[in-house]
Each structure stands twice: as structure tokens, then as C-alpha cells.
Amino acid sequence: MSNTHNPESPWLFSRLFNPWRCSSNDNSHLLVTEVIEKFIQVEVSKESRRRKRKPEDHKRFLKAIEAITCDLIHNHLSDQRSGIAISRSNRVLSKTSRYKNEVLNKTIPYLLDVLELPELQMLEQVVGCINYFYPEKNGNLRTVVKAGKHLVHLIQKYHVELEDLGLSDGEETIILKREKNDLWDHGGTLEYEDNDLTNLYRDEMRTINQWIKKADLNYMEPFHGKDKHNYDLDCRLLKRYFTRGSFKSGGRLFGGFWQQMKKVHRENLLIDGENIVVLDYSQMTPKILYGYCGSVPEMEDCYQIKGYEYCRKGIKKVFNAMTFSDGPITRFPKGINSLFPVKTRFKEVADAIENEHSRIAHLFYTGIGHYLQFLESQILVEVLLKLIESNITALPIHDAVLVSEIHVYKSKQVMEQVFLDMTNVPSVVKVE
């Protein structure tokens, strides 16, 4: 075991430990079984445990060893040199939460230390690492682990590949986040009591996730060499993230591997062996806002503003800023002024937008954007559920979905109908 606090450490960008990782077939199962057997043999030889584990504790022990082993294998096969970040803090591990896997408990340090012993060499660990995603100023130093010499040998012995790993069920899919204190605040999670609404949301996500889990998703070959391993095909679990401590704010779906893909790589994605097509709701925010006000926009393009016809991208960003802000804005948000002619003032642009959209202007600067995002997520969830009923696999990306080429027409129809039913405003669905 070594120790480092070096900000330039190769462990700086280590990803967090995934406690849901598990074996999914005989190859990986046999490897995990051997690790467990050797672990117990070491315990016996060193007399590090004098009492037999209780049945429930033994189950958690088996799950923990499997999760640690499988995540180490995944990290190694993915060629992720930065390793896996995991906390050894009793303060962190003793906490109870609906978001926490039961394997993350006070036994973790002991399990890591035994797995590192010369008799096992299943992992290597470095304690006290600064993590980019969990900075030291928040008191979140992490231990970083990577596959040890003997685990690498077992991977080769059992011919284990990424396809031999899976994810266990039970992870919370309805996430409630607190209000952010500032721009750099990640917005931590909040505990909540379940009710009819949260149970409904969870049931909907269960239906969507079960459908996507069994979907035929693959890459077109060749796929830019080893870039294929940068995306984990098993990473399909979608979660709804609600914001500002409210189940009427946010609600977008995150977690699918396709959401992290570069556009050029996404073009290589196959659904049911077919090339994918992107179906994208255009002008979704203003159209939902008009529907909320019981009105329909008269203009063909809500982002085409008189005097700024060549600044559509900038207008869209300013429009969104005006809906999400809780109060008046006096200057362009960072990076947006470059989308307009030199010396353009924010007030001029804002006034032009308000004049063009006078029927909804009273809702600007009220923070309604967070609720509009919730309505957007409701629409997308309903679209996914309707497409499942039609035996169509769709992968969501905020206000768009990926579908196979053969299902473009039907999917577009469903998207348009759902939007009309939920907003009373006709939509524009673009085919990309």
C-alpha cells in the first residue's frame, strides 16, 4: 500500500468504484469463485477471522468480493490507467442512503487490504489520492485501486472479456438533488420518502430500463480501433435526476453509454443490426412554454428574432437563460456575447425576444425553465413508453431519441402525437 497527495498523480482522474458490477457468465463466475476461495484460504491461514460470518454478513461478503473483483477486471480490460477511486473512510462507509449499495460498508478497508496481500495480489492500492471529481477541499480524498498481478493472470486464465461482466439490479433510478449553492457546486443528493408519485416514476424507469437492457445494441465494425472499449455497452441503466429538491424540477434521464459518445462515434452505433437515426425535438423549450400559457406560437421558428436573423444559436442560449434565471439578467452569460455582432448589448437582445414573444414574456426571469425541463422529461418518458408498446427500441438524449432506420417514420409519429397530447402545441421533430 502506498500513499500520495500529488495533484499531478496519474490517479487524479480515477473513476468512482461501481459497486453494482457483477459476473454475467461462466467465465467471469469461475474467476470470482477462485478469488473468493483464495481469500477465505488466506483468512484461515492467517487466522484473521476467528468467527464464522453470519448468513447475512456472508452474503454481503460474497457480493462485495464479486463487485470489487469485477470492477477491477472492467477497469483493466478497458485500459483505464487511472484506476478506481473508493473511500476507506468509516464516516463515508457507515452512512445509510437509498442511493448506496450494501457492499459499501465498514468492511471495505479490510477486504481491500486482504486482496492486496502478497499471497493474493488481486489488487494494488494507493491511499489518500486527490480526485478531480471529488476535490480535497471537500475532504474527499480517495483510495485508488487497480488490478493486481495475480488478478491479471486469472483474467487470462479464464479468458474473461468485457462482455463477461454485467450489472446487478437494485440501483436507485429516481435521484433527488438539492439546490446548488454556486456554479461549482455538484448539487448533492437528498433523501426522500416514497409516495405514489415517486413509485410511479420508478415503475416507469423500470419498464424503460428492462427494455433497453435486453435491446440488441452494438457497434458497426471497424470502430476506430480500440476506441470501442471507451464505451461500455452494459452501461444502459437510466436514472431520472430531479433538481432543486423538487420532483417538479429537472427529471432528465442520464446514464446510458450512448449519451457519452462523440457524435462521430455515435454514427457507428447499431440498434437491432440497423444504422441509427437521431430524432430531435426542435424549439422544445419555447413551445412547451407557449403550451403552459395555453397558447400556440405564431412564428415558424421561435428562435428567429427580427434584427438577429443570423444569430439563432445565440438567441436560443439567451432565451434559455431568461427562462432559467430567477431574476433579471444584466449581461450576457459567459461565452454567449461572441454569438452576436460586436458591441451588441444583452438588454437589446432580451428586449427583442420579449417583444417577439409578448404572450409568454411575463414568465421570463421566474426560474420556470426548471419546470419546463421537468415537462420535457415527462414528454420523453412517455415517448419511450409508447415506443416500447410498439416494440421499438429508442435511446434518449435529453430532447432527442436514437432509433433504427426502419422505425423512423413510426417513431416520429409517436413523438409528434405525445408532444401534442401533453402541450396542445404542434411539435417540430427533425430527422438527423
How would you sum up this structure in a few lines?
This protein is an alpha+beta fold. The chain contains twelve helices and 16 strands. Helix content is 37%, strand content 15%.
Q: What does this protein structure show overall?
A:
The chain is of the alpha+beta class and 432 residues long. The protein folds into 2 domains: 2-167, no CATH class; 174-284 and 370-431, no CATH class. Helix content is 37%, strand content 15%. It is built from 12 helices and 16 strands. It has helices at 26-46, 55-77, 90-93, 108-116, 149-157, 196-213, 263-266, 284-292, 312-324, 346-356, 369-389, 408-423, and strands at 2-3, 15-16, 21-23, 84-86, 123-129, 142-147, 165-167, 174-176, 217-219, 239-242, 250-254, 269-271, 274-282, 395-397, 400-404, 428-431. Strands 9, 12, 13, 14, 15 and 16 form a 6-stranded antiparallel sheet that branches. The chain has a 5-stranded mixed sheet with strand order 1-5-6-4-2. Helix 6 (196-213) crosses helix 11 and helix 8 (284-292) crosses helix 11. The longest helix is centred in the first third of the chain and has 23 residues, at 55-77. The radius of gyration is 25 Å and the shape is elongated. The relative contact order is 0.10.
Based on the model shown, name its key terms.
alpha+beta; 16 strands; five-stranded mixed β-sheet; 432 residues; 12 helices; 15% strand
* Rg calculated over all Cα atoms: 25 Å
Order of helices and strands: EEEHHEHHEEHEEHEEEHEEHHHHEEHE
Shape label? elongated
When the domains are counted, the total is: 2
